[in-house]
């Protein structure tokens, strides 16, 4: 049986279909006019942050939104949060866009997380027109860094015009002028989020014209009375703090939260120790081992871990350096090779476990203006290659992952002045493991005289420095030596714990140093105070090493005994 549709019915179906299309288009147009549809830059959706939450490992950092909520439409509304690669910069930017953007409904997405329990949650949820820019991403469609600024202006203005059709603008306008016109005619304020804000500062360090155009663009967007009126919140994130012009920030109205001065953002930069403990408990990973490999960044009162590294070791169980996969060392390698003010020696000492004082105030927050060792080391802190104790103004290598990166760098770069030193260190370690007491004493004496001449050798602390440098080759097989390790009834001067893969082949070393005393006093102190008890969990074999230095004779003595169980 065949059914025939009368001609007039076909026309009715066609009319209804056409009406449906018109209604749909009018609905979309209405949404655009209200500024509530998602775009590439204007009012993005929440899909990126949804992917983050869907991931196998997600640590709740939504509490940061409660802080940003508290500064909206205040004098503290301009924020720059800098942190190293793989420390969650883009995730944070995506989270903020998902929360504030009028281009999506994120209520269910955030329910159950920290921000949903805060009083400010509903007040600002998806209530703002958001501009979300990723400068790194813009380079490719812009067809080069020299076109990035014009690309951003052209495309964001193109999205803003149909979203605000009643706003009268004539001719070509800048982004700042467009936002100002919208604010003046509608009262609208914007939230501007810029990810990888500093990529042109880092990657185009020697291109002055690109640098100047970009910095001027940012100053036009965020500085002045007009910007104060049309900006509800500005959030910049990247690796570097805002570039300085002489002694002042190029955007001095921004409050900065950095690896040197994290302020209230400390526990939102990376994973905290408590968060890592929970991840280890849930996954069955050894927390103490994770701590040795990836802990060490001290931000305020928080011990901070690299999120990417922790996530990888939690998922795969492979304790290794994931840092090399970020590729940032190439940019600083030439700076280290210049050896400002003995920079290489300072790095070697830090590899051995020492700390170095760093004055961070002169660094210009760029990749070209380096006047001394302090500037280079400050950059290394921002890049995450060094940790920094803000109270004591001391820099150090934070953990085993970064220590391996520096050890590889020393070997790859073939620091000629250190090759012989490394050889001496390897021989010292071999002699220690072979329990050759006289040879150990001779090598410590040799290292002191030849490679530590700058150290004022007049007390037990200076002896400690020489010993740390002397055993630098041990870093291949051992974790960073623990100084003043709490033990049975006191503190051991040095404790070397073998890495997991070397436990069966290398003994733990418990070292006690004495100054102008008898070397037997050192070895007896190890036994009497039960120092080895603290390391029994790490290895079955332990060597006890006692070392004394006689100031009058300038002679080192050594006694080595194997712990008998």
Descriptive keywords:
18 strands; Rossmann fold; elongated; about 575 residues; 5 domains; alpha/beta; five-stranded mixed β-sheet; disordered N terminus; five-stranded parallel β-sheet
Describe the protein's architecture and organization:
The protein starts with 6 loop residues before the first helix and ends with a strand. It has a 5-stranded parallel β-sheet with strand order 2-3-4-1-7. A 5-stranded mixed β-sheet has the order 14-15-16-17-18, with helices on both faces. Strands 8-10-9 form a 3-stranded antiparallel β-sheet. By secondary structure, it is of the alpha/beta class. The N terminus is likely disordered. The chain is built from 23 helices and 18 strands.
- The DSSP helix count reads 23
Q: Which of globular, elongated, flat, extended, rod-shaped describes the shape? A: elongated
Number of strands: 18
Across the major sheet, the strand order is: 2-3-4-1-7
The N- and C-terminal alpha carbons lie at a distance of: 97 Å
Mean pLDDT: 85
Number of domains: 5
Low-confidence stretches: 1-37, 485-491
CATH class of the largest domain: Alpha Beta
What is the correct CATH architecture of the largest domain? 3-Layer(aba) Sandwich
Rg from C-alpha positions? 30 Å
Q: What about the largest sheet?
A: 5 strands, parallel
């Amino acid at each position: 049986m065949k059914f025939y549709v009368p001609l007039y019915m076909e026309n009715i179906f066609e009319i209804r279909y056409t009406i449906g299309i018109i209604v749909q288009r009018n609905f979309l147009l209405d949404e655009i006019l209200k500024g509530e549809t998602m775009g590439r830059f204007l009012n993005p959706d929440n899909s990126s942050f949804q992917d983050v939450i869907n991931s196998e490992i997600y640590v709740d950092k939504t509490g940061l939104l409660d802080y940003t909520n508290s500064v909206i439409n205040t004098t503290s509304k301009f924020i720059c949060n800098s942190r190293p690669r793989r420390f969650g910069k883009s995730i944070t930017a995506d989270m903020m866009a998902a929360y504030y953007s009028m281009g999506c409904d994120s209520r269910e997405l955030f329910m159950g997380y920290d921000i949903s329990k805060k009083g400010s949650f509903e007040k600002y949820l998806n209530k703002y027109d958001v501009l979300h820019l990723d400068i790194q991403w813009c380079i490719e469609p812009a067809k080069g860094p020299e076109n990035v600024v014009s690309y951003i202006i052209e495309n964001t203005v193109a999205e803003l015009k149909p979203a605000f059709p009643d706003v009268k603008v004539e001719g070509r306008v800048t982004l700042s002028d467009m936002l100002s016109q919208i604010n003046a005619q509608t009262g609208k304020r914007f939230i501007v989020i810029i990810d990888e804000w500093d990529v042109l500062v880092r990657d185009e360090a020697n291109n002055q014209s690109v640098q100047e155009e970009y910095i001027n663009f940012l100053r036009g967007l965020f500085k002045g009375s007009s910007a104060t009126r049309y900006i509800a919140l500005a959030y910049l994130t990247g690796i570097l703090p805002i570039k300085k012009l002489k002694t002042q920030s190029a955007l001095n109205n921004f409050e900065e939260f950095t690896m040197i001065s994290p302020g209230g953002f400390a526990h939102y930069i990376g994973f905290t120790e408590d968060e890592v403990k929970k991840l280890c408990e849930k996954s069955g990973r050894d927390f103490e081992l994770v701590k040795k490999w990836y802990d060490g960044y001290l931000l305020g009162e928080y011990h901070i871990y690299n999120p990417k590294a922790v996530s990888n070791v939690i998922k795969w169980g492979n304790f290794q350096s994931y840092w090399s996969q970020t590729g940032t060392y190439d940019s600083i390698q030439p700076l280290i090779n210049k050896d400002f003010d003995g920079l290489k020696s300072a790095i070697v000492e830090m590899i051995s476990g020492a700390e170095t004082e760093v004055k961070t105030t002169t660094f210009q927050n760029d990749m070209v203006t380096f006047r001394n060792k302090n500037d280079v080391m400050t950059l290394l802190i921002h890049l995450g290659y060094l940790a920094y104790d803000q109270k004591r103004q001391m820099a150090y290598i934070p953990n085993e992952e970064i220590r391996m990166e520096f050890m590889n760098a020393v070997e790859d770069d073939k620091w000629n002045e250190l090759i012989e030193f490394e050889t001496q260190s390897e021989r010292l370690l071999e002699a220690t493991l072979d329990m050759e007491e006289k040879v150990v004493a001779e090598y410590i004496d040799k290292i002191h005289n030849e490679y530590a001449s700058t150290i004022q050798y007049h007390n037990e602390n200076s002896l400690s420095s020489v010993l740390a440098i002397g055993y630098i080759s041990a870093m291949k097989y051992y974790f960073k030596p623990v100084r003043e390790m709490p033990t049975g009834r006191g503190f051991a001067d040095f404790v070397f714990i073998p890495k997991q893969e070397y436990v069966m082949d290398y003994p733990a070393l418990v070292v006690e140093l004495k100054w102008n005393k008898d070397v037997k006093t050192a070895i007896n102190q190890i036994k009497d105070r039960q120092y080895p008890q603290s390391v029994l969990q790490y290895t079955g074999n332990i060597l006890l090493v006692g070392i004394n230095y006689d100031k009058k004779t300038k002679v080192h003595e050594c006694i080595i005994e194997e712990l008998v169980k």
